Automatic annotation (TrEMBL):
InterPro entries: ARM-like, ARM-type_fold, ARMC7. This is Armadillo repeat-containing protein 7. Gene3D superfamilies: Leucine-rich Repeat Variant (1.25.10.10).
Length: 213
């Protein structure tokens, strides 16, 4: 259940909520520690705090969005998973969304679609969907899907649509279902049709007979 600022004040008294100071301590701990396990725990905690809108302003002031984005290029799969979960939690808020887009977050998040970790891929698809907005902005592409005007920015590029289409054919039910929702709700019929035709024309190398000596 989301917190309300008034409720936090009632629980913590005149000294304030103390939430910002605690979050700042977490960020400092992440930056100062050399322990991988400790960093993982901090990222997991920050991702959990990102679930509650009461923390959004604090997290922006502490540059946690940038911290999350930086971790997506790490080799440690837990770093990537926790950071992406945090971004997914933050991406529905318009200010957070704009910051992620401004920092090139779409490209960084889309790179996680090729992860071997199921939860990471699910979070990547969800984050991309959350980053799509109905707010009019500059330098973006506007499309109308299911009678909705959507600002898709660079989110539905052919490369990303192709990757999502591949996931929609996955044997993994969770990945297949979420990828299908992405294609149906955030891509035009033309985009999906074109991608499907490209895949239908491709040849499975595994089915090509080897030449005889």
């Amino acid at each position: 259940m989301f917190s309300k600022l008034e409720q936090l004040h009632r629980r913590t008294g005149k000294k304030g909520v103390g939430r910002y100071d605690y979050l700042q301590q977490l960020v400092t701990e992440f930056e100062d520690t050399n322990s991988t396990e400790c960093k993982e725990q901090v990222l997991a905690n920050l991702a959990n705090f990102a679930y509650d809108p009461i923390n959004y302003e604090f997290l922006r002031k502490l540059n946690v969005i940038d911290l999350f984005l930086d971790q997506l290029s790490e080799e440690n799969t837990n770093f990537v998973q926790f950071a992406l979960s945090g971004l997914c939690n933050l991406a529905l808020d318009i200010e957070n969304k704009e910051h992620i887009l401004h920092c090139g977050g779409v490209r960084i998040v889309a790179a996680c679609l090729s992860s071997r970790d199921e939860d990471t891929v699910l979070s990547a698809i969800s984050t991309l969907m959350f980053l799509i907005t109905s707010r009019i902005e500059t330098r973006v592409r506007i499309v109308i899907i299911k009678n909705r005007i959507l600002i898709v920015a660079e989110i539905t590029t052919p490369e990303i649509v192709d990757c999502i289409f591949r996931l929609s054919r996955s044997r993994n039910t969770r990945l297949r279902n979420l990828a299908t929702i992405f294609l149906e709700d955030y891509c035009t019929t033309e985009q999906v049709t074109e991608t499907r035709e490209i895949h239908s024309q491709s040849v499975d190398v595994a089915n090509i007979p080897l030449p005889k000596n």
